TrEMBL record:
Protein's organism: Leptospira harrisiae
Lineage summary: Bacteria, Pseudomonadati, Spirochaetota, Spirochaetia, Leptospirales
InterPro entries in the cross-refs: Ergot_Alk_Oxidoreductase, NAD(P)-bd_dom, NAD(P)-bd_dom_sf
Superkingdom assignment: Bacteria
One Pfam family here: NAD_binding_10
Every NAD(P)-binding domain range: 9-126
Signal peptide: none
PANTHER family in the cross-refs: PRESTALK A DIFFERENTIATION PROTEIN A, PTHR43162
Descriptive protein name: NmrA family transcriptional regulator
Length: 278
């Protein structure tokens, strides 16, 4: 019998892709989100028992990020609910270079349940499905000054491994550190997007404090400002400036590089600069 999987974060970048793959392969899936029935809400642990009931395995994508102070207690509570409900295996999407994320990983690893951990670099799709898309389509990008380069990972590659982990025993009790095949600076990212779309995209770097002040003036909430500060001060301080071959070995092929992703994405028209209304 195929295992029934709860995908927590089923509307997110990874969760939605994994749900699609499982559905296409005929695996039973329960959606874990505030819009699903029963509802899963990270702020309402009293409802988790009903969501986890009769589930064989759980994929966890924590929101907003495992770096936030509330993540450890939430993961501990969720793991306890999984233990009580005889869940067999837990899959955790984690982040590279985050001590808080590593603490959450240890909770999963020490749970007594089977586990798989996907410790990921920044997603390539952050530039086409995430926080930077609007700036690109405006033709003007403001960005914190960052010296470190990042080994961006393709979500389709990551989710291919996640699907294999969920549907076979080949990845049981394994931790994968997931990167793309190269290091790319953020300046190179936006230059490449401009090149493959044949558009002019201005790129202005600001000191991080000035960038955060700009975001605050735009009305972004304090939790977003905190997380942005953490990511750029801590995660992007150079600690992750390395390429690891875990993903290549697991997939049996090279992961997608940034230029290939950019060329493919450009064809969709998602990066087309919007006409300004005067």
């Amino acid at each position: 019998m195929k295992p029934k999987t709860l995908i927590i974060g089923s509307n997110g970048k990874t969760g939605s892709r994994i749900v699609s793959k499982l559905n296409q392969a005929g695996f039973p899936v329960r959606l874990g989100s505030r819009k699903a029935k029963p509802t899963f809400d990270w702020e309402k642990p009293e409802g988790w028992q009903e969501v986890v009931k009769e589930i064989n395995q759980v994929y966890i994508s924590f929101q907003p990020d495992l770096a936030v102070p509330s993540s450890l207690e939430a993961i501990k509570t969720l793991v306890h609910v999984c233990q009580k409900n005889q869940v067999k295996r837990i899959f955790l999407l984690s982040g590279r270079g985050e001590p808080e994320a590593m603490a959450c990983e240890q909770v999963v690893q020490n749970s007594g349940l089977e586990w798989t951990i996907l410790r990921s670099s920044w997603f390539l799709q952050n530039f086409s499905e995430g926080m930077f898309l609007e700036q690109i389509t405006e033709g003007r990008v403001l960005f914190p000054k960052v010296e470190a380069r990042e080994p961006f990972v393709d979500l389709d590659d990551l989710c291919e491994l996640a699907f294999a982990s969920l549907t076979t025993d080949n990845h049981k009790n394994k931790l994968y550190e997931l990167t793309g095949p190269e290091l790319v600076s953020f300046k190179e990212v936006f230059q490449t997007i401009a090149e493959v779309t044949n558009q002019t995209i201005s790129f202005e770097e600001l000191p991080l404090d000035d960038y955060l002040a700009t975001l605050k003036n735009f009305g972004l909430p304090e939790e977003v400002l905190w997380l942005t500060s953490y990511l750029f001060r801590t995660v992007l301080d150079g600690r992750n400036e390395s390429v690891v071959n875990d993903l290549e070995l697991a997939l049996g092929r090279k992961p997608k590089d940034f230029r290939t992703y950019a060329k493919e994405t450009a064809k969709s028209g998602i990066w087309k600069i919007r006409e300004r209304v005067s």
